[in-house]
Design goal:
The structure holds 2 protein chains of 2 kinds. By secondary structure, chain A is α/β, with parallel strands linked by helices. Chain A is built from 5 helices and 5 strands, in the order βαβαβααβαβ. The chains are: A alpha/beta, B alpha/beta.
Chain lengths: 130, 102
């Protein structure tokens, strides 16, 4: 089945980012198609490669990136939510006159239309948040 | 048109479980995840609510989240089914829509 996931909470906040990650892993293991994972509100913080959790802790962003590479996932970060929280890709950094970008591999920045499209195209939209 | 309602807050902290229960219609399902698992436990102030809900709803709880909080399957209200993440995915596909009560 074609599934879409919405993540509204950042990593290490409570449990929503972990739950979403485990859900997506289980869904791909069962052979379902993940149409898109959309990161909104504080969920955009899942997409920064500059976070450095302690070595004995899980690195949620790295896990998303790995999963995206293995299963060709479309990880989309909301642009307005991302700009408020300092998540930038190369183009946005240039456009905003910032010295560097911090988007993690496998993530891309786009608009809310991507969430609407995911809601229409996927057969189920599963929401994780706080 | 059966709907799956997910609840991720403890019923002793927020009213998400009450919201889910008051919106769920016959044939719908409730899945308790994260801190929501506290709603599935036996012998609490909300246990009776769950026992009553089991009359017309299916009630599930996420096993890994029970375990993460030091709870075991035999502490869960009789009739509440324990599922893993694969079971979570199955519920999502089994029901027509998924509504998260955050």
């Amino acid at each position: 089945m074609k599934l879409a996931v919405l993540v509204n909470e950042g990593p290490y906040q409570h449990q929503a980012a972990d739950s979403a990650l485990q859900f997506v892993k289980a869904a791909v293991a069962k052979g379902h198609e993940i149409f898109r994972v959309f990161f909104y509100h504080d969920g955009v913080n899942n997409g920064t490669r500059f976070a450095i959790p302690p070595q004995d802790d899980r690195n949620i962003t790295v896990e998303w990136s790995k999963l995206a590479e293995e299963h060709k996932l479309d990880l989309v970060v909301c642009i307005a939510a991302a700009q408020r929280r300092g998540i930038l890709d190369e183009n946005e950094a240039k456009r905003q006159g910032k010295s560097g970008d911090n988007i993690a591999p496998g993530f891309r920045i786009s608009g809310l239309g991507q969430l609407i499209e995911a809601g229409i195209q996927a057969e189920r939209l599963v929401v994780f948040g706080d | 048109m059966a709907m799956l309602h997910t609840v991720n807050k403890s019923p002793f902290e927020k009213r998400s479980l009450d919201s889910a229960l008051s919106h769920a219609i016959d044939g719908a399902a409730i899945l308790m995840i994260e801190d929501g698992i506290y709603g599935a436990l036996k012998g609490t102030a909300v246990s009776a609510k769950i026992e009553k809900a089991l009359g017309n709803l299916k009630v599930y709880v996420l096993g890994p989240d029970l375990k993460a909080r030091g709870m075991t399957e035999d502490q869960v209200v009789d009739g509440v089914k324990v599922v893993d993440y694969a079971g979570f995915v199955d519920l999502v596909t089994e029901y027509d829509k998924v509504q998260a009560w955050l």
